[in-house]
Amino acid sequence: VQLVESGGGLVQPGGSLKLSCVASGFNFGSYEMSWLRQAPGKGPEWVSAIDSGGSGYYADSVKGRFTISRDNAKNTLYLYLNNVRPEDTAVYYCAKNWYSTPQEYDDWGQGTQVTVSS
Residue 102, class by beta-carbon neighbours within 10 Å (0-12 exposed, 13-18 middle, 19+ buried)? Predict the structure, then answer.
C-alpha cells in the first residue's frame, strides 16, 4: 500500500485548497478511504471518509466546508477545503479504509501540511 498526498500550502482564512492523494498497491475502487489531520500538539483527528459508491461523510467541524471525492480511474482521492479557518491548520493524511478511531488506521500517507494564516 502506498498513499501519496499533495496540494497543501499556506492559505488565508476564508480561502480554498484542494488536496490530492494518489493510491497504489491495492484495489483502490473497492475500499472506503479517509482523510485525517493532526494539528500541532494534538492527536490525529478523523476529518472525512468516502465509501466505494462515492458517498461522503464528515466530521462536524468541517461539515459544509470540506468536500471529499474520488476518481477510481485515476486511483486518486481528493479533499476540497473551502472557507478555511486557522483551526484547520494541520498535517492532512489520507488513509485506507474507514475506522472508528484514528488509532485503528494502519495505512497512511506521509501527509501534506496545510497552514491557514493571514
Answer: middle
